[in-house]
Each structure stands twice: as structure tokens, then as C-alpha cells.
Amino acid sequence: MAEHAVSSRPAAPERGERRAVLQRVAGHPAFWIALIDVALILIFGLLSPNNVFWTLGSFQNLAVDSAEALLLTTGVALLLGAGEFDISQGANVVLSSVIGGKVMLALGSAGTLPAILLGALTCVACGAGMGAVNGIVVTKLGVNSLVATLGTLGIATGAADLITNGSDLAGFPLQLQSAFGSRVVLGVPLPALVALALFGVAWLVLRFTRSGVRILALGSSRESAVRSGLRVDRLLIVLFLLTGALVGVAGFIDISRFGTTNVSGHQTDALASIGAAVIGGASLWGGRVPLLGALFGALLAVILQDGLVVVGLSPFFQLIATGVVLIAAVHLDQQRRQRSGRPGRVRARLRS
Predict the structure, then answer these.
(1) Which of 122, 347, 148, 118 is nearest to 240 (CA)?
(2) Which one, out of 67, 127, 275, 308, has a CA that is 20 to 30 A from the CA of 247?
(3) Mean of all residue pLDDT scores within the chain
(4) Which residues contact 164 (CB under 8 A, 6 or more apart)?
(5) Higher-scoring residue by pLDDT: 313, 85
(6) What is the structure's pLDDT at 337?
(7) 3-state secondary structure of 189
(8) Domain, as residue range, for 41
(9) Residue 113 confidence (pLDDT)
(10) CA distance linking residue 323 with residue 300, whole number of Å
């Protein structure tokens, strides 16, 4: 009898540990966003003709669409963690794809593979270059990142229109799509695998390196970061540059999927990525970057977009859905801050 009582004692602590784990999981924004993603997939599948939203082809298309969204959301989530913004992402996607496409077309006679590789590198370099410009304007000129990236948004959009005369580029090598844009590896589109790999690198850096700690330190208290000896300006420029590089990868994925540029598109990319990052748990006021939540937040935006099309609603509803998601994301962020005892207020970063 005594032996039975002794052997049963550890059960209570084990149940308590399991309960604590479940509470931590349930308290993470990623858990609830993932549930919403699954619910939307079920709803759109039931509403779509012949349940086409549940087919393998539909899921693969969802994965490809999510690749670009995930890259943009990862970049903007890191910036939000440092207390900065980038609303020029859509224009950067267009400009990097245009310049990379121009290089690809110019090098067509040098061979298909070299042209594609150099075009891809150009897309990434162009995206990184624009990101670096954003960082320099913010740090060296003392311009608020929201205003700075609003300005570069206009500059990049105008530059892309000037380069192309407002017309999309076409005539890219067919291998661009067959070898990358539409290629499937083990049932998963290659662009999605690339995006997941880069997301994984960003997660590892944020989670296990000093750079990740410094990014969060910038967003938590810029003043304290300066006093502790962090090279704030250099870190911010590098962060903007890396974010731009992710945008450049998205630009290459864009032209590799469709075999053409999209000069008039990507107008709501920045809104969608900010909304996805914030609804996934990132804070508009910095200091918090749950990248797993950002992943599911990016999926949420893409599921909404693709699901509305599949059920036959007008594409204009996508803009409405994007706006609703952004407002909901900001509201959730405000609620989280109020519960944590930190009132939501915008910290002005304008320097005289």
C-alpha cells in the first residue's frame, strides 16, 4: 500500500509540468494564428468548387505565393524588433526584379545559366542596395524610418517606371521558370524551400546569436543600447541591408514564377508584411520578434488572398482583407501592450 502511494507521487508534478507546457503553447500568438490558418483552409476548401482548394496543386500554389510573403515578413519583423519600419518593400521588389531582369536579358547571348545566375545576384544586390540606402537615410540623415522608406518607395517606383517606360519586361529564358520558378522538389515548390531556408537562418540568428540580442536591444531601449556601447548606426544599416536582400530574393522569385516583371504590382506588399508580422506577435514599438508567429501570419495573408480568388470573389476584396488584417494586427498589439503594462505610444525618432 505504501509502495503504491510512493510510486504515484510523481504523477502530480508531471501533470503540472504538462499543464505548464500547454499553457505556454496556448499563450504564444503563433498557436492561435496557426489555428486560424487551419480554419480558413477548411472553410475555403468547403466553399470552393469541388473542394479544389484542398488539392495538391492548390497547396503548391499556396506555398509558392507564401514564399515571397514569408521573405518580406521575415525582413520587416526583424526591423520591427529593432523599432524600425520599411514600407518600401513592394517598390523594392519591383525595382530589383526590373534591374535583375534587364541584366538577364542583356546577358542572354552569354548562355542561359550564367544569365539566370547573374540576374539572380543582381536582384539580391539591388534589393540589398536599396535597403542600405534606407539604413543610411535613417541613421546618417536622422530621418524617421517611416518617412525615409516612404520617400524611397516613391524613388524606387519612379526609377522602375523610367527604366521600363512603364511596361513589363518579358522574353526571359524558359529555363528560368522550369529550373526554379515552377520546379518542385519532393512535392514542395523550390521557391518555397528557398524562403523557408532563409527564414530558418533568420530564426537561428535571432534566437542563438549576439546579433539577435542586439536587434531586440535596439527596439527595447535605443538609449540603453547606445549607453551599453552598441554601434547602433552600423547595426541598423546592416539590418536594413539584409532586409533589402531578402526583398531582392523575393523579386527574383517573382520574375521566375511568371516569366515577366510586374511593374504596376506589389502595392500592398509592405502593408501585408507589417500586418503579418504584427499579428504574429511582433510589436510596432520594438523589442519583440516571434518569427514563428510571423511565419503563420504570412500564411494567413496568403490563404486569405488565394482563398478569396478560389471561391470566386472579386480581387478587390483582397485589398479590403489586407486592410482589415492590418487594423486587427495593430489592435492586437495594443491589447498585448496594455496587458503587459506598457502603454502603446509611438516613439518619435526624428532627430534635429
Answers:
(1) 148
(2) 308
(3) 84
(4) 98, 261, 263
(5) 85
(6) 64
(7) strand
(8) 32-334
(9) 85
(10) 13
